[in-house]
Amino acid sequence: MTLRVAVIGSGPAGIYTAEALVKQAQEDVQVDVIERLPTPYGLVRYGVAPDHTSIKSIANYLRRVLELPEVRFLGGVTLGEHLSVEDLLASYDAVVYATGAMVDRKLGIPGEDLPGSVAATDFVNWYCGHPDVSASMFTLDSPEVAVIGVGNVAVDVVRVLAKTAEELSSTDVPHDVLERLGESQVKAIHMIGRRGPEHAKFTLKELRELGELANADVCVREDEAVVLGGDFPRQIRGNIDVLQSWAGRDPVGRPRRLDVRFWLRPVEILGTDRVEGLRLERTRLSEEGRVVGTGEFETIPVGMVLRSVGYQSVPLPGVPFDERSMTVPNEAGRIREREYVAGWLKRGPTGVIGTNKSDAAETVRTLLSDLSDPTGHDRLRSAPIDALLHERGVRPVTYDEWLAIEAAEGALAKSLGRGERVKLAGLEAMLRACRP
Question: pLDDT tens digit string along 239-295?
Fold first, then answer.
């Protein structure tokens, strides 16, 4: 009897889970990768910056998994709307949840809900063409913008803000978004970290890219770049060296300016009807290594604040969730009988894309071990998922239909004279492309 497994989510964690099931199973296996969007690949498509084409090439590997005969892609199907956990357990021998971490953590300061105070994930989704975010969501009409955070997502955001539309024209940025980037009034970008350069989370490669910006002067204050001793790992030492080489460097008059700031924490977002400024407090480390305020404040006149202080997962309907860790409680991927979890939803937003491969392999080992137990359930499935979806008027997007969307994006790029492809904006445009 064929082992049937549903994987909820088609990002790297979900697709690596499907691959591990095909490789590890000692019997026939059929894996349905169920995705709420009509497009696969998760953050590879909607999180990796458009100008990082080498990282986006991992989609070629993920594609090969979806093309395995044992794997099927079902797009446009939402857990909690079209299907319940009970439906899945009635149709499959096991279910693996791999929906990732989709929202930003909040700062928890006054004024955070003002218009113009936005999660960096929304901005990333905007320039990556995520169908949840309209191309009209952002109007870059403020001369100054603050990005809170000093990780790779923050670096991606400030790099996109600093570049010209011409520099991004060969990427897959949706055309309406590219036009808005071309109308940007941004002149100054402030990237702000609560701790010092030695605590920054960006990688050396990403940091160096900022120094290569043709359209922006990158500035670091000498007093904020000071690092007191310490035997730092090579990566951190490299970050420190680059930042200190920029410290005190005079701007050469490029159209935009990027100020990389350290030892500052946001305490209030100022404004009445929208963001008008950001109040910051100088920080230091206590003897216990905690960030504490010094009572010294400054205000910068920004019209937009983008918070990039970490991703977090959101609860899934009918699935246990720990509000403290913002993950699904599990033991080596096992949640409860026949239910499993993989990726950031399992362990939190840590590691790189490739980390999800070993993580998925662990979950699959647990799943297959459980289902090989002769005392386990007898795999009685009462409701084939295709019939259930048909009854509910749900027509999943197939893998071939996804390929039609991809082909339409290639044709659009050719018609616009823009690179290999340009993302279609919105669900309606995608569905028109695959179901004319």
Answer: 999 999 999 788 999 999 999 999 999 999 999 999 999 999 999 999 888 999 999
pLDDT at 62 over 70: yes
Closest CA relative to residue 29, chosen from 68, 67, 70, 66: 70
* Cα within 13 Å of Cα(241), Cβ side: 11
**pLDDT (0 to 100) of residue 371:** 92
Cα angle for residues 162, 164, 170 (degrees, 5° grid):
120
Locate all alpha helices (DSSP H) within 68-221, ordered by sequence.
85-91, 120-127, 152-162, 165-168, 175-182, 204-211
> Alpha-carbon distance 264 to 262, whole Å?
6
Is the distance from CB of 96 to CB of 14 less than 8 angstroms? yes
Count the alpha carbons within 13 Å of 20 in the hemisphere toward its beta carbon. Answer: 22
| Predicted local confidence at residue 249, as pLDDT | 85
* pLDDT at res. 384: 84
What single-letter amino acid sits at 100?
G
> What is the dihedral angle through the alpha carbons of 62, 66, 70, 71, rounded to the nearest 10 degrees?
110
Strand ranges across the sheet with 3-8? 71-75, 29-35, 3-8, 94-97, 339-341, 334-336
Check pLDDT > 80 for residue 417.
yes
Cβ pair 259, 191 in contact under 8 A: yes
Helix (H) / strand (E) element for 366: namely helix 355-371
Provide the 3-class DSSP secondary structure of residue 251: coil
CB 60 within 8 A of CB 400: no
The pLDDT assigned to 380 comes to 55
Question: Which residues neighbour 324 within 8 Å (Cβ) at sequence distance 6 or greater?
Answer: none
User: Is residue 201 within 8 Å of residue 152, measured between CB atoms?
Assistant: yes
Question: What are the pLDDT digits (tens) for 215-224?
Answer: 999 999 999 9
* DSSP character string of 42-68: THHHHTS-TT-HHHHTHHHHHHHHHTS
Choose among 282, 124, 251, 279: nearest CA to 188: 251
CA distance from start to end of the chain: 38
The pLDDT tens digits for 330-367 are: 999 999 999 999 999 999 888 778 889 999 999 999 99
Q: What is the DSSP track for 93-120?
A: SEEEE-----EEPP---TTTTSTTEEEH
